[in-house]
Amino acid sequence: MRTFIMQVKNNFMRLIVRNPRFFLFDVAIPAGFYVLFTKVMNQGMPASFNQTYLISMAIYATILSSIITVANNIFADREQQYMRFIDVSPISRGSYYTSMGTVLFLLTLIEVGIVEAVAKFYIGVSFPLTTWLAILVLASLGSIPIMILGVALAFCGSSDLISMMTYMLVFPLAILSGLWWPMQMMPTWAQHIGKLLPTYQTSVIVNDVVNQKSWSLTATGGEVAWLVIALVILISVQKIKRVQQA
């Protein structure tokens, strides 16, 4: 346990504390978008817009970290021979991935918490403490399937290819699931696709909780389905990689 805690601490320092890009991409961009759309471009928006867009930007922040940050850091560890160091150290690969998952989940909690802090102290959104905690926890838990997809992307080729694939995944997820603008503004075919995405399922669950509606079993089932799909993709990609290296 002590070794695992040290590994978590080490990964937290090198991936978050010593990584200024984290603040730019995973925190500043979603928080900046939230301020821009609620303070500058909110003409004609209903009074509830500040609350609903808070949820959208919190989920968008988790997409950035779960795909771009996860894929790039896992790939960098593989390319810089960090995995060979793991293999000759007392730390197993299972412990490495578990500690990375722990740190990356902490990262989602931090970025969602910062977006919430901006909403409360700068925009003036008012929620009970339990609602703030629900947004924090549910948005972070909803990122787990996407995080697993981010790990799978790290095994898909060169740095350039991975970077291209991450952005090809991030922006469609954000746009089609209605995080940037209302889904009703999109064509019908795009709405059908968007409602199948894991980020849309997370948005439905969080909005239902915030608005004190009954828990959506359909959205919960969608999250579970995406968790299974992501795990299957990860296992398949790793098997293909092992065959290629054999």
UniProtKB/TrEMBL annotation:
Bilayer disposition of the protein: Multi-pass membrane protein
Chain ranges passing through the membrane: 21-41, 53-75, 96-123, 129-154, 161-181, 215-237
Start and end residues of each ABC-2 type transporter transmembrane domain: 46-235
Compartments in which it is found: Membrane
The UniProt record lists the keyword Ribonucleoprotein: no
Major subcellular site: membrane
InterPro entries: ABC2_TM, ABC_2_transport, T7SS_ABC-Transporter
Alphabetized UniProt keyword annotations: Membrane, Transmembrane, Transmembrane helix
Pfam families named among the record's database cross-references: ABC2_membrane_3
Record protein name field: ABC transporter permease
